[in-house]
Amino acid sequence: MSNNASPRILEAARAIAAREGAGKITIEAVAKEAGLSKGGVLYNFPTKKALLSGLLDQMLEAHRELLSEVPECHPARTLSGHLDTVIQPNGVDDDLSMAILATAATDPRLLDPLRTELACDLERILTDTQDAPAAMIAVLAIQGLRFQRLLNLPDGGADIRERAIERLRIMINEL
After folding, report:
1. DSSP 81-109
2. Is the pTM of this model over 0.85?
3. Is the pLDDT of residue 168 over 90?
4. Alpha carbons 75 and 170: distance in angstroms, whole number
């Protein structure tokens, strides 16, 4: 068994999360879904934490891809990309994010790749603008949107949420 099975294993974990919820992701369930032995999954991901870490890496790569779609000439490219990432309809990713956060509660180092990525993005955001405090307000608003969605907190209704996102996009475009 080689690491070539990793994408298949991660896809199986995502399928389980989509169908049954991230709480149902187990090594055994992923092995069955991927058509592999438990040992085949464990060879690639020795623990459930390692599997969730692989899913986090996959989610970060998807985030990078979304950022790369924002035109180079956009004055607040990274910030705009972060907003686009948050407003994407990703119910499965939300569920996986919650599973990763739950696991990180017992081992905060699991989120180190996310922290590193966001630190680099934040540095780029703050240096790419003439108004760093306004950019930071936008960053905090985007993080608030992300956690409002993940935790299923009240959002004021679809109309006000969409208007708030549009106002935030205008603010970002003016940076």
Report:
1. HHHHHHHS--HHHHHHHHHHHHHHHH-GG
2. no
3. yes
4. 12
- The phi, psi pair for 73, rounded to 5°, reads -80, -10
- Nearest-angstrom CA–CA distance, 139 and 161: 17
Mapped onto helix, strand or coil, the DSSP state of residue 12 is helix
CA torsion sign, 105 to 17 to 40 to 61? negative
Angle between helices 112-127 and 77-87 (to 10 degrees): 130
> What is the distance between the alpha carbons of residues 89 and 19, in angstroms, rounded to a whole number?
16
Rounded to whole angstroms, the Cα distance separating 107 from 103 reads 7
- For residue 56, give Cα distances in angstroms to 1, 36, 112, 161: 22, 22, 10, 27
142 burial type by CB count under 10 A (0-12 exposed, 13-18 middle, 19+ buried): buried
Q: Do 49 and 145 contact (CB within 8 A), yes or no?
A: no
Q: How many CB atoms lie within 10 A of CB 86?
A: 21
Q: Give helix then strand counts, H and E, for the chain.
A: 9, 0
As given in the structure block, the two tokens for residue 98 are 């919650």
For 131-143, how does the pLDDT look when each residue is reduced to its tens digit (9 = 90+)? 999 999 999 999 9
